[in-house]
Amino acid sequence: MEPSGDFSRLVKIMARLRDPDGGCPWDLEQDFKSISHYTIEEAYEVADAIEREDFEDLKGELGDLLLQPVYHAQMASEAGYFSINDVIRSISEKLIRRHPHVFGNISGLDSEGVSGQWDEIKAAEREARAKRRGQVRAPSLLDDVPGALPALSRAEKLTRRAATVGFDWDNFEDVTGKVREELAETEDAMTSGQTSRVHEEIGDLLFAVVNLARKAGIQPEAALSDANAKFARRFRYVEQRCSEDGLEPSHAGLDILDGYWNEIRAADKSGRDILPGDDPSGEPFQKS
User: What is the distance in angstroms between the CA of the first residue and the CA of the last residue of the chain?
Assistant: First the structure.
């Protein structure tokens, strides 16, 4: 079987890998749950390639991500649930249904109007889904917020949904006040010695910070991802400086490690490039 840019060829390759007669033993052992984490990982790898602006990598990562729905659909087809054509038809129907201003007779909507229309359509979809499932209780705005989302992303999505019906702070200052309130409660919990209470208060504090990010128009998951990358880059500099001075980081002591950290932090603030061996500005460094 030869590779091809034809989507149907990819479907055939996947079917061959899952063929009990001569297919791949590893692929034959898999089920929906065993490969679900790969679907999540591949999405993150796509995001990473985009962040690095490596479009050659992006091409490969998008291919890896594309394999996931084909893989799941192949297993579903084997079980008689649905086929890849059903998946494509489903998303095609959804795109057309959710864009009546493009494919229907609605016109004159700006971006805000499109967003409002989108929310109304999704609400109708939730009601239809609840009816199909025989759900007794009324559908909730939060029903289709996936539980498997990263916690920061899920918190942002939950609060954004609630805000659509007015359950939100009026202004940015109110949210910062809530963050301060939760921080004070966390500090109080820390003195109690009750681990369960500390756990709860730190969760509330993180949730409040997510709301702060949302009100500021910042994606909390992306902001924390950038902070992680910044920390990793600065800590590698600290490790390199230890190596240059013949020190083991674990034996260097906090004062020395702080000094190296402050070098790279000050360089970041001034916009300078600094490498191990460079002479920093000579100004006193204060960590904050």
Answer: 60
